[in-house]
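PROTEIN DESIGN WORKSHEET
SECTION A - STRUCTURE
LENGTH: 260
TOKENS:
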């Protein structure tokens, strides 16, 4: 389905980004990985997912908090594969504290990485997508792009912001073959959330398993984590022909969280 296309997934060395990269590679897209930490393992996973289709995988380690590095990554991706057809803005970080205790430098970092980076990648990717009259921009927002939780001011502000950016991107491309949509997961058991599970286990003096149940019980009626694989399938749907006229949605996959 995506043979001959190239997908750039920010923050794809672990978690949701890696799940989406694997799902798109399975459909035949070449992949540009990005993110921190060990790269050989994630690269091997994506190569294995796309092996049947002869998928190629490149990597750029740009820090999504730095505009100049993002520009370098976009040029690198175009140099490797011709152009970026599918842009997945996924890199994100979290910090949990009340507003009066929130370190201003954490606020700036979260807004830069979780929101402003998507403005830069989108503005740099759109010209080639529009010239080809085909493209997909998929923003990994969060259920926190739709509703708020206490202690997460910067994250909730950034995620509401990226849902807004998604809608504007969708309107500006509405008469073209480029679509822009957001995915809004509830809890997904990645490194980002394990830190919050650990904090809960310590706070209540309970086991890892009990802390997971407490976390889910507060917000997610299904009492189940969404998986990176499930989110990868939703991203693949947006890239399929059935997604041609899906524009500007913020699609939650949240076990009923936002339905309450
Ligand atoms: P994760 O920590 O497993 O992965 C984050 C990825 O982003 C990693 O590859 C990391 O190296 C990369 N990254 C972090 N800072 C970066 C930077 N400055 N520049 C480039 N890459 C950077 O987290 P995850 O849970 O997979 O989160 C991915 C996205 O999904 C985030 O935007 C997050 O807000 C969102 N999300 C996560 C959940 C959840 O429950 N885990 C729920 C809703 C939304």
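SECTION B - SEQUENCE
RESIDUE ASSIGNMENT:
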């Amino acid at each position: 389905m995506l043979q001959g296309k190239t997908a750039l997934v920010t923050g794809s060395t672990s978690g949701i980004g890696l799940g989406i990269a694997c799902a798109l590679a399975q459909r035949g897209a070449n992949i540009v990985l990005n993110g921190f930490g060990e790269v050989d393992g994630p690269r091997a996973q994506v190569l294995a997912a796309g092996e049947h289709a002869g998928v190629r995988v490149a990597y750029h380690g740009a820090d999504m908090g730095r505009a100049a590095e993002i520009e370098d990554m976009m040029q690198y991706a175009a140099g490797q594969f011709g152009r970026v057809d599918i842009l997945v803005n996924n890199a994100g970080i979290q910090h949990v504290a009340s507003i009066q205790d929130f370190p201003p430098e954490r606020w700036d970092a979260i807004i830069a990485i979780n929101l402003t980076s998507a403005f830069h990648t989108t503005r740099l990717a759109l010209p080639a997508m529009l010239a080809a009259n085909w493209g997909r921009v998929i923003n990994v927002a969060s259920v926190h792009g739709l509703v708020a939780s206490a202690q997460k001011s910067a994250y909730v502000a950034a995620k509401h912001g990226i849902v807004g950016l998604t809608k504007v991107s969708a309107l500006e491309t509405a008469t073209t073959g480029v679509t822009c949509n957001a995915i809004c997961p509830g809890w997904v058991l990645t490194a980002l959330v394990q830190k919050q599970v650990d904090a809960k286990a310590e706070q209540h003096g309970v086991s890892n398993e009990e802390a997971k149940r407490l976390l889910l019980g507060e917000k997610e009626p299904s009492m189940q984590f969404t998986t990176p694989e499930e989110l990868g399938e939703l991203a693949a749907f947006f890239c399929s022909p059935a997604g041609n006229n899906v524009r500007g949605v913020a699609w939650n996959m949240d076990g009923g969280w936002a339905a309450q």
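SECTION C - NOTES
Helices lie at 15-26, 40-49, 67-81, 104-132, 153-172, 191-204, 208-219, 228-239.
The chain has a mean pLDDT of 97.
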